[in-house]
Design a protein that fits this description.
CATH superfamily: Ribonucleotide Reductase, subunit A
Radius of gyration: 19 Å
Strand order of the largest sheet: 1-2
CATH architecture: Orthogonal Bundle
Order of helices and strands: EEHHHHHHHHHHHEEH
Largest sheet: 2 strands, antiparallel
CATH topology: Ribonucleotide Reductase, subunit A
Strand content: under 5%
Mean pLDDT: 93
Number of strands: 4
Helix content: 55-70%
Length: 330
């Protein structure tokens, strides 16, 4: 099914209104690098998903409410969330240059070149949204770096080091695909889904930014899954090596102290959410559960449950035992 923006046909998975949510799309869709090539990105993403939203990540009429420009727990929660995500996306952009360098064929090269641009765009729209909240635009990069010093040292740097060892030192393209899609994005994608659900009833601009980045992540996850599936079918002897990488990646994530960082901003969100209960009303963050009735711990635990559900589905598609990518309970 396609829809049209102007004269450009847009595939459902790239259409702003028709694309599924991140979790459903990542678990159900099948896309490969030969489909998601450079022409696809130009026509479906740049001229499709991002039409009218290319600069800020949201439509001009999607506004930032005044209460997010004023000091308070909701504003601080959003600054922490988008500040950390902006830095993570910047580091992802730098990592992806190595993927482009060792891509085994043109389809993989073009796809990862477009993903590099996607991640750079994500970093920018998250960062620039903080300027929309009133942070000084001229010092955003350094302000975010200072804000996220501990997060980078404790969470991001170990992940970057782990990934670079596989992609740059060992030049293992398939292993790098597994790390990025299953370990890194496979763990962070459910948190991105939660972000979209949380902010949509509070800030049209914030919700749209999260929506646009989620549409991109569907493509990143599904294409990577196809690359790995095809690689394992062509090289079944690679499975033990892949299992080793996924096991090491899972153990790395289990060691990282991400819970305190996430719960801190969720507690800020909780405080601010209560003050804006009139805006949220009976809005359900997931079926049958009002967002106002959830706690920071419940939202964190749900994101982790989504991680395991997504891993099980995508592992089955690729022919990999799901337990190799499922995080242990913490």
């Amino acid at each position: 099914m396609t829809t049209r923006h102007g004269t450009t046909p847009v595939a459902r998975e790239a259409d702003w209104d028709e694309a599924p949510g991140l979790l459903d799309g990542a678990m159900e869709l099948t896309l490969g690098p030969t489909e998601c090539d450079l022409p696809y990105w130009i026509t479906q993403v740049a001229q499709g998903t991002l039409l009218g939203r290319g600069v800020t990540g949201h439509a001009p009429e999607a506004t930032v409410p005044d209460f997010l420009r004023a000091p308070g727990p909701l504003r601080q929660a959003l600054i922490l969330e988008f500040g950390f995500r902006s830095l993570a996306e910047e580091l992802a952009t730098r990592l992806l240059a190595d993927y482009v360098a060792i891509a085994p064929g043109v389809p993989e090269l073009e796809f990862y070149a477009t993903q590099l641009i996607d991640e750079a765009r994500h970093a920018r729209v998250f960062r620039d949204h903080l300027a929309e909240l009133g942070m000084p635009a001229a010092t955003l990069v350094t302000d975010i770096a200072e804000l996220a010093t501990d997060y980078r040292r404790q969470i991001l740097d170990p992940v970057v080091e782990f990934t670079r060892d596989i992609v740059r030192t060992r030049a293992d393209f398939a292993g790098g695909v597994a790390v990025f899609a299953i370990v890194i994005e496979g763990v962070l994608a459910p948190a991105a889904e939660l972000s979209e659900r949380k902010w949509t009833p509070l800030s049209p601009a914030t919700g749209e930014i999260s929506r646009g980045t989620a549409i991109d992540e569907i493509r990143h996850l599904t294409v990577a899954a196809t690359i790995l599936k095809d690689h394992l079918e062509a090289h079944p002897d690679y499975l033990p090596r892949l299992a080793e990488i996924l096991r090491a990646g899972r153990e790395l994530w289990d060691r990282l102290p991400d819970r305190p960082f996430v719960l801190h901003r969720e507690e800020l969100f909780q405080e601010g959410m209560a003050a804006r209960a009139d805006l949220i009303g009976d809005y359900e963050i997931w079926p049958g559960v009002r967002m106002l009735d959830t706690t920071p711990e419940q939202r964190y635990d749900m994101a982790e449950a989504w991680t395991d559900q997504m891993a099980e589905k995508r592992m089955a598609y690729m022919g990999i035992p799901a337990h190799l990518a499922t995080r242990t309970a913490r």
